[in-house]
Amino acid sequence: MDIKNYKLTCLGSPDDERDVLYSDIACADGEVTIPYELDVPYQFGPKNQFKVGSCVAHSLSECEEIVKQANEQFSVGFIYANRSDSDFQGSGMIVREALAHLVKEGNVLNKDFPVNEEYPGIIAFLDKYGKELLFQKATSNKSKGYVRLNVEDIKRYLTVEKKPIIITVKVYDNFYELQTNGGNIPSEPSGKLCGGHCMLIVGFKGDKLKILNSWGNLGDNGYVHLDLSSSIIKELWTLTDEKVVKPPTPTPGPTPVGSILYRVQLGAFKVRAYADELVLELSKKGIDSCVRIYPDLFKVQCGVFKVRDNAVAMQNKLKELGYDCFIVEVK
User: Fold this and answer.
1) d(Cα 301, Cα 263) in Å, to the nearest integer?
2) What is d(CA 159, CA 161) in angstroms, rounded to the nearest whole number?
3) Cα gap 19→114, rounded to integer Å
4) Where would I find the H helices in 87-217?
5) 16 in a domain, yes or no?
6) Which of 14, 126, 250, 318 is the least buried, fewest Cβ under 10 Å from its Cβ?
7) What is the pLDDT of residues 185-216, one digit of tens each?
8) Are 29 and 63 in a shared domain?
């Protein structure tokens, strides 16, 4: 199969300063000795998404299997099909949205929903397999929480937690060289931006990451390798086996009543498909966004910020690209 037939439809998660960062909750006591080489074993063989834009769902199901030390594989299709009306509605997924559903509704075993079809067509299969029963079964497999990591957290997290890390990357033309060079992804991009892809970090050797891909046995028997310093790394997330809460930010003096969030919004559409088209257009320009649903309108949002200056910086970036946008204050 031509490797370029795989869809690259992993969309970025818009900036949200409410995210729990690993650095917020990691124990700072004591030094951690980082080994030269580390491997987090995956108990099953590499999966294959084929021509479906389900790379996020594949990576999250694999992450679940390792974190929960599962004896059976979890469903990819249930993750891919389970979306709220406010979630992205096209081919592909936003990682943060998918993670939230694993915590809220959970997942089923692959034997209960062994489906890998494109969205939104896959929704019909939920009814075919018994939607109500599937969601009942999913409650037994809820994840406890999820956290976001920075690149500098990767080795420490793998060493201390012995759990995998979900990674999203920007894919350029030279990414496909992995097919002929033993799975080694070029560290720096070359050629045009083709889209985004989601995979699972399961180890490292020196500063080379070992990553489980979802393209069958392509590359290094289903695995690929990427330099830790690569500029194509976009997002890093992981599932946790315990509930996580963002620590409060210390404030001088009395604690203020309520707090203000700043949303950067652009575009208001009466048709959902037009809003999703703008999300895809922004993604191709390196801007992460999502759709917010209002009465009779679908608005595109580019980030939620606690600091107004950060929202202004995003607003200026969008204006430089020729987009009209504004900041909304939400208490």
Assistant:
1) 7
2) 6
3) 32
4) 95-104, 123-129, 131-138, 154-161
5) yes
6) 250
7) 998 999 988 889 999 999 999 999 999 999 99
8) yes
